[in-house]
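Most newcomers find our protein records easier to grasp once they have seen one. The structure tokens are whole numbers drawn from a learned vocabulary of backbone shapes. The record below serves as our worked example for the rest of this section.
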Amino acid sequence: MGKTAFIFPGQGAQSVGMGQDAFNAVPSARDIFQTADDKLGFSLSSIIFNGPDEELKQTANTQPALLTTSMAYLEAIRGKGIKPDFVAGHSLGEYSALVCAGVLTFEEAVSIVRARGEYMEAAVPGGQGSMAAVLGAERQALAELCSSITADGHVVELANMNCPGQIVISGSAEGVAAAAERVKEAGGKRAIPLEVSGPFHSSLMKDAASRLGDKLETATFHSPAVPVVANVTARPVEDASEIRGLLVEQVYSPVLWQDSVEWMIAQGVDTFVEIGPGSVLSGLIRKIDKSVKVVNVNSLENAEKLESLM
């Protein structure tokens, strides 16, 4: 029998109205939205369901909004008899994976990711940092190009190893612009600027990581019921204190998504269930390995049909 992994999306997957179908029809999903509102002290659910888009896109709102919506869809598939052998999430999605694995309670996680979003927004003044998706470049060659630009005084680093032919770079606005102009030197075709509020997963986020570390010290971490494949190492992490340390590192380190997926496939995973809005991760996985099955739970309809989709 093949194995199954539950995977959870990160920033960029959000859209106004996400999760409304689960809220309307699944009492335990409605409780998730209510818990988020109560814990954060404002109506996050109103921003999720009604927008405006500009407000949902603010990192400090996006991060708890995506966690909440992903957990609502997870509630919608509880009782379907499908249990994961591994869980993983892309960047912010790692917190959804940790809640799924019982490492953090949802209440603690939603408070943490709200703070994480605030710290990340505050770390670098608006307009001074950016990110871009580089298509077609070789990882090593792109890393060397970024190192040489950084050595010249403009920080730019590899941020997300998403799939073959797609690597996201992050850093100062000048550094990312310089690398984007020179991607052909690394075998790249082009660079596409990303709409983000800061240079996530770069060394410019170390101040945010330090503040997050203080916040995580007060949180209770439990041993995972299911192996959680960490972004920083692309390997499962089981020790609660190690998980805490890796979450701090993750803020300024590359997300090894392609490596994580390849490792899970090597362990026998042949079905990935993406739980949460959008289908970004499903697209990446198809580019990593066309032979595996990818199922999306990004609507109540898909949640209800999950068994037949497997």
Observations:
- Residues 159 and 268 are 27 Å apart (CA to CA).
